[in-house]
Amino acid sequence: MCGGIAGKPPRQAHGKSCRNVQKFGQLDDLQVFFMLDRDGYRPNVGIILINGKNEVFWGKRVREHSWQFPQGGIKPGESPEAAMYRELLEEVGLLPQHVKIVGRTRDWLRYEVPSNWVRREWRGSYKGQKQIWFLLRLTGRDCDVCLRASSHPEFDGWRWNDYWAPVDAVIEFKRDVYIRALTELSRFLKGLENYDSFLQRMRQSARPAPVAEGLPDKQQDH
């Protein structure tokens, strides 16, 4: 069955039959070293996949409670666009005919990875990621998504989410890049509220409803 609703529990990666591709993300130390630039950043692509409601694909990392956008490294000699399509297949199971490129960031966006997140043998040489971000619109169906297209899946669940919601949900050291990427790419989406408006709406929705003067407060069920 195709179709989904934002905010519902994550869809699980059941035993759906789909393409099985070799995951590029399984790299040895030497491969990673030769992919770093002179400042210690690994070239990378990030993918913001949207549906017809401008909701974004939000993936749950395998056996973790953390969520993120699809992303992955760029091979030596590979263009950012080619890397994007490869990562899209490996992590989300989608082919080029399932999506349309809406836009991309003009320049690299960088984030540093805290040292306690870096493998010991990479410390001192690996600093973080530099990314080109792509905004894609899903032209296929929700059921075209296949989280088991790779032999090493990145996600085991996913959902559609409000465009700006990932900013507050992603791990802290990626937050600034998420804000910058979402902000830059939001110019391609007509009628989309900006981040400040989203925050204001979220704060207002979290406020308790006003109580009419002279009436007792409604008791809460616990």
CATH structural fold name: Nucleoside Triphosphate Pyrophosphohydrolase
Q: How many whole angstroms does the radius of gyration measure?
A: 20 Å
Mean pLDDT: 85
Amino- and carboxy-terminal Cα gap: 36 Å
Report the structural category: alpha+beta
Quick gist of this model?
The chain has 222 residues and is of the alpha+beta class.
Question: Can you describe this structure?
Answer:
InterPro entries: Nudix_hydrolase (IPR020476), NUDIX_hydrolase-like_dom_sf (IPR015797), NUDIX_hydrolase_CS (IPR020084), NUDIX_hydrolase_dom (IPR000086), RppH (IPR022927). A motif (Nudix box) lies at residues 72-93. Residues 40-183 form the Nudix hydrolase domain. It comes from Aquitalea magnusonii. Its cofactor is Mn(2+); a divalent metal cation; Mg(2+). The protein has 222 residues and is α+β, with helices and mostly antiparallel strands. The chain has a single domain, classed as Alpha-Beta Complex (Nucleoside Triphosphate Pyrophosphohydrolase). The protein contains five helices and nine strands; from the N terminus they run βαββββαββββααα. It has helices at 29-35, 80-92, 166-169, 175-185, 195-206; strands at residues 11-12, 41-50, 56-61, 67-68, 71-73, 99-104, 109-112, 128-138, 155-161. The strands form two sheets. Strands 2, 5, 6, 7 and 8 form a five-stranded mixed β-sheet that branches. A hairpin with a 5-residue loop joins strand 3 and strand 4 (67-68). The chain is globular and about 50 Å long. The two termini are 36 Å apart. The model is unreliable at 3-7, 24-28 and 211-222 (pLDDT under 50).
